[in-house]
């Protein structure tokens, strides 16, 4: 029986756990707190609470290792991933699947971006992810890396911002943004585990980039609300937080042909319009 260990078994990890269980794999989800472990157990997922910021984590044996836990919020490395890989040095999994970020590409001026483009991380959080990728490049066994952009799905949409009528950047001033539905990201992780070649990197995206405001307008339309007002880039630079502004300073359009063709993955939600109905509940 294939043993799968999911490090950071949150929303995406739970979806992967269900897909793995359907294949009759033995699944263990690793989470930070006992409350999270209890939540997984109530969903029928075997769980273990571990603090990856402590040395020598006691991790179960794994044939397939999914690493979805984020790095710490400070620093320029990912010591959590380092601790996990060290724990498996003497008993390496057959394959490691890592979900990182498309932020490692940095600003690409709106160009179409394939996985062959050299990375150029320009924020601290992207540099931590780039360091994680570099660490995985030295791992002796097969590795697959999914570079994910914005992940959306149930409970992962800016519904309250749309309801409040918060402004969005005018399309003429907007960077290109990319996204993937959380169910498709889980399917991509499973496909990479089952049939991805060694040292493969994938843009885990639906391949349909839009200006930033397009998602807000589509949500408003689905909810029967007015389209959000727009503001100029100059006004956004004055009024928005540094974190939010950081996403305005990078523009790229992610190509997903490798994901679809090499893994043979058919996306359930190939664009935002297709995914919204599955992501908005009647209460929204």
Automatic annotation (TrEMBL):
This is NAD(P)H-binding protein. It comes from Spectribacter hydrogenoxidans. PANTHER family: NAD(P)-BINDING DOMAIN-CONTAINING PROTEIN-RELATED, PROTEIN YEEZ. InterPro entries: Epimerase_deHydtase, NAD(P)-bd_dom_sf, NAD(P)-dependent_oxidoreduct. Residues 10-203 form the NAD-dependent epimerase/dehydratase domain. It comes from the Bacteria.
